[in-house]
Write a structure and sequence with these properties.
Blueprint (H helix, E strand, L loop, with lengths): L1 H6 L3 H7 L7 H9 L13
């Protein structure tokens, strides 16, 4: 899982996997409200 997330830093990986990474509770909420499919939500307490 970590390798997949790290790979998404590169455009090529995002295009090939047709996925992208969203950071921040506000942005995640917008994605959900827009009706997009969410595969995984990762949370790391500060």
């Amino acid at each position: 899982m970590i390798k997949q997330v790290r790979a998404l830093r590169q455009k090529k990986a995002r295009v090939e996997s047709k996925t992208f990474l969203v950071e921040g509770i506000h942005h995640v909420g917008e994605v959900i409200e827009a009706g997009w499919d969410v595969d995984v939500i990762l949370y790391a307490p500060e």
